[in-house]
Amino acid sequence: MSKKFFIRWMVPRDMDWVAMTEWMCFDDPISCQDFVDMLRKRNHVGLVALIDGELAGYILYEIFSDRYEIITFAVHEDFRRQGVGTKIMEKMKVKVSPQKRRKLIFEVRDSNLRGQLFLKKIGFKATGVTGDYYPMVYEKKFQETG
Ligand SMILES: CC(C)(COP(=O)(O)OP(=O)(O)OC[C@H]1O[C@@H](n2cnc3c(N)ncnc32)[C@H](O)[C@@H]1OP(=O)(O)O)[C@@H](O)C(=O)NCCC(=O)NCCS
Questions:
Q1: Cα-Cα-Cα-Cα dihedral of 103, 43, 64, 145, to 10°?
Q2: 121-146 pLDDT, tens per residue?
Q3: Per-residue confidence at 99, pLDDT binned at 50, 70, 90?
Q4: Distance, CA 52 to ligand 1 centroid (Å)?
């Protein structure tokens, strides 16, 4: 039987799971309180993906006047390589307004090869290198992919 996949807004009751998954995925995780504080801001958007009702992945992004920036994004290791990350990104694309904000930016660590392979697979391009903690800048232009 095929699994039921669903994406919805991130809500406060998701926070413990999101913060725990963040902690498992990154060595500088965003804290539970920081997630709560960011989600209270009008220009921050969080989505979670569920498989058969079980939380499987999440994304948090910020809306600027000319672009979107991904703050954090992960799929729980139990659900990887099943297309969950791709589906979250596709859902995000539906929710954004590409007429006003043409690009989506994500800064990742240079050591995160898996993340970079994923981003390239779904159409992001490496556009720069910064001197920061997350030095690889990836960008996706909406008009290129429709
Ligand atoms: C990167 C991440 C979000 C991918 O999520 P996912 O749900 O496993 O991704 P998908 O199943 O949609 O993968 C789509 C494609 O991305 C590429 N990809 C994903 N994971 C990969 C890996 N470990 N190695 C190589 N390529 C990978 C593949 O091309 C894959 O297609 P395929 O499975 O048909 O080969 C997930 O591994 C993750 O949460 N990693 C830890 C957190 C993180 O690095 N976040 C930043 C992400 S940029």
A1: 10
A2: 999 999 988 777 677 899 988 765 44
A3: confident
A4: 20
Instruction: Tell me, using a 6 A CB cutoff, whether residue 94 lines ligand 1.
Output: no
Pair of tokens at residue 128: 């720069």
Pseudo-torsion of CA 12, 24, 7, 109, nearest 10°? 110
Is 120 touching ligand 1 by the criterion CB < 6 Å? no
Q: What is the pLDDT of residue 143?
A: 65
Among 45, 35, 41, 58, which residue's Cα sits nearest to residue 101? 45
- What pLDDT, in 10s, does the model give residues 23-75? 999 989 999 999 999 999 999 999 999 999 999 999 999 999 999 999 999 99
Per-residue pLDDT band for 110 (boundaries 50, 70, 90) equals confident
* Domains of the chain from N-terminus onward: 5-145 (3.40.630.30)
d(CA 76, CA 74) in angstroms, rounded, equals 7
Cβ 124 vs Cβ 138: under 8 Å: yes
Helix H or strand E segment including 93? helix 84-95
Q: Is the minimum distance from the CB of 84 to ligand 1 under 6 angstroms? A: yes
CA atoms of 90 and 87, how far apart (whole Å): 5
